[in-house]
Amino acid sequence: MLDIQFIRENREIVRVKAKQKGYDIDIDQLLGFDSKRRELLTAAEELRRKRNEINESTKGQRPNDEQISKGRELKEQLANLEHQLSSVDQEFQILLKQVPNMPAEDVPIGDSEEQNVIAKTVGEAHKYDYEVKPHWEILKNLDMMDKERAAKISGSRFVYLKGDIVRLQFALIQYVMDKLGDQKVIQKLIDDNGLKISSKPFSPVIPPAMLRTEPYVASARLDAEAVTYKLENDDLWLNASAEHTLCTMYWNETLQEDQLPIRYLGYSPSFRREAGTYGKDTEGIIRLHQFDKLEMEVFSTTETGLDEHKLLIAIQEYLVQQLKIQYQYIQKCTFDIGKPNARGVDINCWFPGQKRYIETHTADYMTDYQARDLNTRVKKKDGSIEFVHTNDATAFALGRILATIVENYQDKDGSIWIPEILKSYMGGKEKL
């Protein structure tokens, strides 16, 4: 959530920038509850002070009737004030959590995805002298994908993947772990992009695939209506992406500055209801209820948060470039970056079998917005304490990147060439 002091000092800026993100927040109402809350806190503190004075004056002796009566009166007044304070604070917290993070200055202003900006297109599209097919036709013909039997067992938007396409997925996982765990690779990307941050490599993590309501709400990532599945008999939600159980990892903890940056590469199955996408991407493995994902998560200081965001984007570009797949770099507009984000970038890869670009990667910079509600702090070397800055970004959404590879590397005989960088992870095989 946003710092209330910032809102007090920048009422109009918050109102305008919230509207740019599509949130019509009553800032005056929020600050009204804030003022009443502070007034009640001051009054309650004064009553406690008076009660303590009585207790101090009667220490070691029996209180007289007047002191007993006054003590009871103060106790009743304090109980009444605390009841009011609880009610006011509840409304205040509800309104405060509705305020989105402020977009960074370079985020394009827009009221729909149509205002996202294609900053650049990178790479050359593969050339074919034969008719190319979408990935679902290729995988089905190779008996590597079975949606019909998955639908029989689990319903729509599930799939059985089989054979060498599964091996290719695990090759991708190992490849990414190797590259992100290599300090030399990280250092080169830092140098190439003029960043002033540590070359510390990423540590692989298999996080829980479920999380409780309280930390999920605090992460500002719970989207119960459109996205997230809840277990009926438990206070548990299925993870909609690996960063949801990574960003909450240090909930209510204070880290030391010399621990930062903390860089994780999380691997997790993910689950999404995909409500509101009826009829969209129903073929293939682009939009499923269950999918596997490699996600990067970074905890850093205020000073390095933006450079960490830029590093994650550089890693995404590097990984796609190594696959030799054409892509677009999309700077997302205010409407599309999301409530907790200050900045967001998408990588959209070219799918020749569908003749379109499809989002395969996203990178989100939350500043301290997410950490404030999660109460994840850092103790600086000078003894000061502040909230950490958080970043998350896709390394590979594995189903989508597999589909990209299949379409870009298809051969005219229906087989699939293995990208050069993955051959050593596939026992030297040339094709699937």
Describe the structure.
The structure is a single chain. This protein has 432 residues and is of the alpha+beta class. It folds into 2 domains: 4-98, Serine-tRNA synthetase, tRNA binding domain (Helix Hairpins, Orthogonal Bundle); 113-426, Bira Bifunctional Protein, Domain 2 (BirA Bifunctional Protein, domain 2), CATH 3.30.930.10. The chain is built from 13 helices and 15 strands. It has helices spanning 4-9, 11-20, 27-57, 65-98, 135-141, 147-154, 164-180, 183-192, 213-218, 243-246, 305-322, 369-374, 398-408; strands at residues 117-122, 145-146, 160-161, 203-205, 210-211, 237-238, 254-256, 262-271, 290-300, 327-331, 343-351, 356-365, 377-379, 385-387, 389-397. Strands 1-10-11-12-15-9-8-4 form an 8-stranded mixed sheet. A 3-stranded mixed sheet has the order 7-13-14, with no helix packed on it. Strands 2-3 form a two-stranded antiparallel sheet. Helix 3 (27-57) runs antiparallel to helix 4 (65-98) and helix 5 packs across helix 13 (398-408). The radius of gyration is 26 Å and the shape is elongated. The chain starts with a helix and ends in a 24-residue tail after the last helix. The model has no long low-confidence stretch (mean pLDDT 92).
List keywords for this structure.
39% helix, 19% strand, 432 residues, 13 helices, Helix Hairpins, BirA Bifunctional Protein, domain 2, alpha+beta
